[in-house]
UniProtKB/TrEMBL annotation:
Assembly notes: Homohexamer; trimer of dimers.
NCBIfam families reported for this sequence: moaC, PRK09364.1
Protein name per Swiss-Prot or TrEMBL: Cyclic pyranopterin monophosphate synthase
Role noted for this protein: Catalyzes the conversion of (8S)-3',8-cyclo-7,8-dihydroguanosine 5'-triphosphate to cyclic pyranopterin monophosphate (cPMP).
Encoding gene, per UniProt annotation: moaC
């Protein structure tokens, strides 16, 4: 098996994972969309003219996870066995809190798919609410947990 690096002789390449065993892998990521009072009010009022922002963003996040290899140049295309995207409107903050959990049985992990699902869902929340305010902020995109594969389990502390 070759080195597990995206560079060979100073040039980018996709890592060869042929010799790695396919194992069950999972990853969970999160993101937040900080809302302005106007955007929170629009969301609380039941959505916008384009439809329900959270439902559209949930579907977009699932599609984003499935298209990760097309968006991230050196990412392997993976057979995803499960994608769950959750969006929670927290009016008291105000924000939309997003989590995505992605599962596969493959030779490499799904951290990028979980992160992409959150990013795409957050961008769709922005798109759906931008008419009420352009000052929305997408923050805290980060991996929370990964399990499976040679490196085992990892969980963000705090």
């Amino acid at each position: 098996m070759g080195e597990l690096t995206h560079f060979k002789d100073g040039r980018p390449r996709m890592v060869d994972v042929t010799q790695k065993p396919a194992t069950h892998r999972t990853a969970t990521a999160e993101a937040r969309v900080k809302l302005t009072p106007e955007a929170a009010q629009a969301l609380e009022a039941g959505g916008v003219g384009k439809g329900d922002p959270l439902a559209v963003a949930q579907l977009a996040g699932i599609f984003g996870a499935k298209k990760t290899a097309e968006l991230i140049p050196l990412c392997h295309p993976l057979p995803l066995t499960g994608v769950e995207v959750r969006l929670e409107f927290r009016p008291e903050v105000p924000e939309v809190y997003i989590t995505a959990t992605v599962r596969t049985k493959a030779e490499t992990g799904v951290e990028m798919e979980a992160l992409t699902a959150c990013a795409v869902a957050a961008l769709n929340v922005y798109d759906m609410l931008k008419a009420s305010s352009k000052a929305l902020e997408i923050t805290d995109l980060r991996l929370l947990h990964k399990a499976g594969g040679k490196s085992g389990e990892w969980r963000r502390e705090g």
